[in-house]
């Protein structure tokens, strides 16, 4: 039984280097602190159409965008409900892609997996082989862009190009922890559904999920006998077309924060943001290779989350505690019991830059005595 632990008012501020939530700008936090207004007022239409259209502009997509109250897992579930009648192929290479398989199984779908050892990336040629050899007519194939548990960046562009040859098979991409810090040309690679959560590389407070939906995916849902109600593409997109609002009451304060942060993101621009994240990732990898080793298969390292192999056998939990205690910085252990002490993870996303990442690696060096 879990016992109540009373929340206090005196927690020290910690700088977040975990793979989300991450640091949020002061003015973005302040944007949430406004008197409430109604979700059917004109003001709400101004707010929602602004964040939807700004997101399309930032992502450089002509596809439709839904911003829904919830976390990324909402679209992990509803994209399966909306697009899959029977068979789905889920590529797995770590905890979050395994969660996608679990979600689809829970929804009663016929789930095949294309499994990779944790740390390895999904390969387009294997996807092609499976599509050619399988007797199943897959309604969809899923792939995680950034496997946050292992720090692997999958080649979703090449996988999308393979899937473009299979027009009846929809491509669903989990871009949580990547989008906003790692560029992807969504429209050029046949990605039908791509979703993310805002608390990762968008650097916003948690509470909203974003989904980019192709026309084909929208049409497919219309033909289905059943689909998600809350996360249905049709319901959200039709409501947007008619009223410029969301189908049910959204987390208005988080949308106010979104509006503010998306303006910052547009000002920086997608390319510059991508470049800043690349610089942080390259620095972190170099540091990791000097003192430890990188966990992911070479050539597939994430641009937003580095998973570092604990080759020195340091006490990861103790190091995290000491860095938190002495420097007020928090980074992550490896994911789950499997990688908990065998790896550790640094989230270099959102508002961070090379200097702030260097401050963390300096702190780790100091605590570990490197
Ligand atoms: C790759 C990936 N997918 C899905 C999720 C789940 O996202 P959320 O917690 O926003 O539902 C996470 C969370 O860390 C993730 O990293």
Automatic annotation (TrEMBL):
The UniProt entry's coiled-coil ranges are none
Which residues belong to any copy of the Aminotransferase class V domain? Answer: 36-286
Q: Print the keywords alphabetically.
A: Pyridoxal phosphate
What GO terms are given for molecular function? alanine-glyoxylate transaminase activity; L-serine-pyruvate transaminase activity
What is one Pfam family matched by this protein? Answer: Aminotran_5
Q: Which cofactor does it need?
A: pyridoxal 5'-phosphate
Q: Per its record, how is this protein called by name?
A: Alanine--glyoxylate transaminase
InterPro entries assigned to the protein according to its UniProt record, in alphabetical order? Aminotrans_V_dom, PyrdxlP-dep_Trfase, PyrdxlP-dep_Trfase_major, PyrdxlP-dep_Trfase_small, SP_NH2Trfase/AEP_transaminase
Protein family membership = Belongs to the class-V pyridoxal-phosphate-dependent aminotransferase family.
- Specify the species: Natronococcus jeotgali DSM 18795
- The question of whether Oxidoreductase is a record keyword is answered with no
Q: Does the keyword tRNA processing apply?
A: no
Gene Ontology annotations of biological process type = glycine biosynthetic process, by transamination of glyoxylate
